[in-house]
Amino acid sequence: MPEPLTILHQDDHLVVVHKPAGLLVHRTALARGEREFLVQRLRDQLGRRVYPAHRLDRPTSGAMVFGLDPAIATRLGEAFTERRVEKRYLAVVRGLGPEDERLDYALREEDGHRPKAEMPAQPAQTAIRRLDSVELPVAVDRYPTSRYSLMEAHPLTGRRHQIRRHLSRRGYPIIGDAKHGKGNHNRFFAERLACPRLLLAAVELAFDHPVEAYRLVVSAALDAPMTQLFRRFGWAGHLPVNAARHAPLRTPQAEPITP
After folding, report:
1. Window from 66-75, 99-108, 118-127, 132-141 with minimum mean pLDDT
2. Category of 82 on φ-ψ map: left (φ > 0), alpha (ψ -120 to 50) or beta
3. Which residues are 139's β-sheet partners?
4. Which residues are catalytic?
């Protein structure tokens, strides 16, 4: 039996859970043969149906919110679509990332069915900031040493794989990204640093509660491989913790949902 999922916040209307890296949120046509999904595991753990309000890529870990009924999930989903949810990610990238920058590169949707070139380019913005960096005396690439950065990312739009694609296009691919990253650095982290996963984690969500009169701010700790890596690199001061708190509303309180 898998370990119980970490519940970051739960009330009568919604639940925020820590999604493990490598776990699909729900069944899709592209996931034939998979037997474990976050929706089913959470449903079985809580003993009730749950409804995802947004998406999180399979290799990404971190905070994910579910409604406990369809109406709540719809209202939460609208908040994500309308960019009323603040999202904070941590990523480990190759190179010395920018100190503070807004990436503004249009992205074509990747739906897995049509050639990407046929898809329209959509506006996409991500705010990034370098929190820390490290230089290792190891020649992973063509240089005698290798530099890596801890980046904070705030996606201001919600395109698929947006953070991964933006950082890669800017020249700082996320470690462990098989599609948009660099294989030699990915192998170095997997084989030498015991970190075989995509080093991207959704560490904070903030949104107005769909029913109650407060803004919910939920943070998620990193999993064991990322935590150990942060400590090894001297980045322990940037480790998030599991926590939930109330803050003032950002928008007028929504109309209550009636059964």
Report:
1. 118-127
2. alpha
3. none
4. 57
Helix (H) or strand (E) holding 45: helix 38-46
- For residues 155 and 161, the answer to whether their CB atoms sit within 8 Å is no
Residue 43's Cβ-count burial label (10 Å; 0-12, 13-18, 19+) is middle
Rounded CA-CA distance 175/198 in Å is 6
How confident is the prediction for the chain on average, in pLDDT?
A: 91
Write out pLDDT tens, residues 102-114: 999 999 876 556 6
Please tell me the least confidently modeled range out of 30-34, 171-175, 183-187, 215-219.
Answer: 30-34
Structural domains of the chain in order of their starting residue, each with its CATH number = 7-247 (3.30.2350.10)
Question: What is the Cα–Cα distance from 50 to 47, expressed in whole angstroms?
Answer: 9
Q: Which two tokens stand for residue 174?
A: 């996320």
Q: How far apart are CA 175 and CA 224, in angstroms?
A: 16
d(CA 230, CA 245): 25
Residues present in the chain in total: 259
The values of phi and psi at residue 183, to 5°, are: -60, -40
